[in-house]
Amino acid sequence: MDIELRLDMFGLISTLLIVLLTLVIKWILKPYEECTKPVIYLNENSKIAKEVVKCCKRLNEIYNPTYVWGKNGHFQTMIHAALGRFDRKASPLGKLLTLYAADGATITYMLYDSGMNNNSEVAKKDSIILIVPGIANSSKTIYIQAFTSLFLKHGFDVVVYNHLGAHPKIKITSPRLFTYGCTDDLQIVVRDLLCRFPNRRLIGVGFSMGANVLLKFLGEKPSRQANFSFALSICQGYSCSKAMPYMREWKGLRRFYSWGISRNVKKLITRKHRESFIDFERKGSFDKIDWRKISSSSSLEELDTAINKRFASFDDVDEFYRWGSSSNYMGKIEIPTFMLNALDDPLTPEPLFEFPKKIVEENKDGVFVVTKHGGHLGFYEGGLIWPNKTTWLEHALLEYVVAMDDAVQSLNAEDDANEDCFRESRKCFSI
């Protein structure tokens, strides 16, 4: 009798485990969910945008994420945050350059020469790619190095802007760190680049928070656009003011992600730069810090209220968010602008897409791409469990950058250019 009871219990437990596993596969991993082509919003009156998009193979084909877990935005996001890339190559060779702001802040960026990093005989491009990384990221971050290597391989010199305080080997020399909307430090880097390379133009590529900084930089003072051929914004939220209420919600685990990101920023403040801030307090160059309040912060909003707003000299956090939102400045961007988001990005819910959609209406050469899958900066593709070495995002960005760079170069060469000016040189590149 006991044996029969144990067998019945074993059968019941086995059945429940099978049901649970089936539900996990169906509702969480979703391997059978349909894959689709990206949805592309653009101004129908723009010949250059339409022709460039036609040239981008990845934008016109179905995006197939890694089969077992790639259709879940959380898996894409968390694996990206934990690993960056599955195929980690040697770090590209570059030079760390140091500049100083008026308040004594140490501003750094990495300059990479494609000639130093390229074994193949690829012609050097005239344009320089300026990468602005995501929150708390720098030239040392794995995915930033992956994109840097990719662009170098195809002949572009690359510059990576290091957010203030984010580089692991650089100490702060003024009482502040990066913020969502500080563009003054980026201006210092751009000005230095223009002095070094007066006859070359820039291509701006921003990721997440870095995309917010980049587009705010370009729209805040439209004259800055004269030095840029075009810009790309990847996985940003556009409006701090409208994004923060979503980050308070547990829906989509956004509250969890807010805690995780704030934890990374807190490490910079309370560990890496703690001694420096204590020294600034002692000298009277920074008001007393409530370390307990910072340590107890469990979300970005709480950390912003506790200290981050002070880095930009704000007392009110709502004013800090309005000042730091690229959505308030994007309407003045006139150069071609490429924006990309994923529907399953847990950090950027779909209602925030209203901003790039509006920009496409205002910027005649603007393009907004929405993928069904990809998460936040993940976009792994191919394979059953182990994805391809190169992500869908790397392919897509390279194709757009090369095609648009060719188009802009052709249009600059002939004032009377039309869509045929670059048709012959238009190519779809593979990595």
Description:
The longest helix is centred in the N-terminal third of the chain and has 28 residues, at 2-29. The chain folds into 2 domains: 1-30, no CATH class; 31-239 and 325-421, Alpha/Beta hydrolase fold, catalytic domain (Rossmann fold), CATH 3.40.50.1820. The chain has helices spanning 2-29, 47-55, 73-83, 114-117, 142-153, 184-196, 209-220, 240-247, 254-272, 274-283, 291-296, 300-311, 317-324, 354-362, 392-413; strands at residues 39-42, 95-100, 106-112, 128-132, 157-162, 202-207, 228-234, 337-342, 367-371. Helix 2 crosses helix 15 (392-413). The chain is 42% helix and 12% strand. A 9-stranded mixed sheet has the order 1-9-8-7-6-4-5-3-2, sandwiched between helices. Residues 18-27, 415-419 and 421-430 have low confidence and may be disordered. By secondary structure, the protein is an alpha/beta fold. The chain has 15 helices and 9 strands.
For the record, the count of structural domains works out to 2
Strand order of the largest sheet: 1-9-8-7-6-4-5-3-2
How large is the share of residues in beta strands?
5-15%
- How confident overall, as mean pLDDT? 90
Could you give the order of the helices and strands?
A: HEHHEEHEHEHEHEHHHHHHEHEH
Low-confidence runs of at least 5 consecutive residues: 18-27, 415-419, 421-430
| Distance linking N and C termini | 66 Å
Rg (C-alpha, Å): 23 Å
How would a crystallographer describe the biggest sheet? 9 strands, mixed
The CATH superfamily of the largest domain is Alpha/Beta hydrolase fold, catalytic domain
Tell me the number of helical segments per DSSP (H or I, 4 or more residues long).
Answer: 15
